[in-house]
Specification:
This protein is mostly helical. It has 12 helices and no strands. It is globular.
């Protein structure tokens, strides 16, 4: 029970920083292009946390590397969707929609023939109502950015489920998994930015500060927290905590 409570509190802390990250992303996009920003934040996070936890990374097992690739690729879609979504919708909308991974997890429970808890049914209804109120305009159509953010919610549920399976494997080091995820996302984003954008570093001190905090704390520290503490909880419980992200975005 103590492990569960600690995991809930740490995941709530990560959620608070993810909510703040939507605001920081909007600031950074004034000077940086979306893919370049993501490459910068994840490579920066990997360099810093990779150095801090270098022993875990150097001794990472094959299973850890395998799962980090799968989780990393899902996060590429998540963070690409979030970054582009913030351009075409509000920060509060992006935070709310991206937190809807709880709905996909509820579907996953049904496919596995698990009976969803009542609180997840209530959460699903409230999330759907909130989504409609925040995204539908007078023509009953969501904004383009809202649709993009839905991809983040779907693929983040994939990240949660794969991470849950990974940390249950005794051969997987949760700490190394969280750090290696950063490298996978950073490298893929860098390759995409080279082909699709003109990579450039932040142009002002304000954007530098936002981008560094976004990378080291909101990306690096938070993803490591998720990997380490999801071992003591479930994807369902984690996704329910993550629905609080729009509160911190606001």
């Amino acid at each position: 029970m103590e492990h569960q409570r600690r995991a809930d509190l740490m995941l709530l802390l990560a959620t608070s920083f993810w909510g703040i990250s939507n605001c920081l992303t909007a600031i950074c996009l004034r000077d940086m292009q979306p893919l370049t920003l993501n490459a910068f934040r994840f490579l920066t996070a990997f360099v810093v946390l990779g150095f801090v936890f270098r022993k875990n990374v150097f001794h990472a097992s094959r299973e850890t590397v395998k799962y980090s690739i799968v989780v990393g690729l899902s996060l590429v879609v998540v963070y690409t969707s979030v970054t582009y979504g913030v351009i075409y919708t509000s920060v509060s909308n992006a935070g709310f929609i991206c937190a809807l991974s709880v709905l996909d997890d509820w579907k996953g429970q049904q496919k596995e023939r698990k009976k969803p808890e009542k609180k997840f049914g209530v959460s699903m209804i409230l999330c759907l109502i909130g989504l409609a109120l925040m995204t539908l305009n007078e023509t009953l159509k969501p904004a383009f950015g809202d649709i993009i953010c839905l991809f983040a919610a779907v693929f983040y549920s994939v990240d949660l489920m794969v991470t849950e399976k990974a940390v249950a494997n005794e051969k997987v080091d949760p700490l190394a998994l969280g750090v290696c995820d950063l490298a996978v996302v950073g490298v893929v984003m860098l390759m995409l930015s080279v082909f699709l954008e003109t990579p450039a570093l932040p142009g002002t001190a304000k954007v530098w500060a936002a981008a560094l905090f976004l990378g080291i704390v909101c990306s690096g520290v938070c993803l490591v927290i998720q990997s380490v503490y999801q071992k003591h909880t479930t994807a369902s419980r984690a996704s329910l905590i993550f629905t609080l992200e729009p509160v911190f975005s606001a």
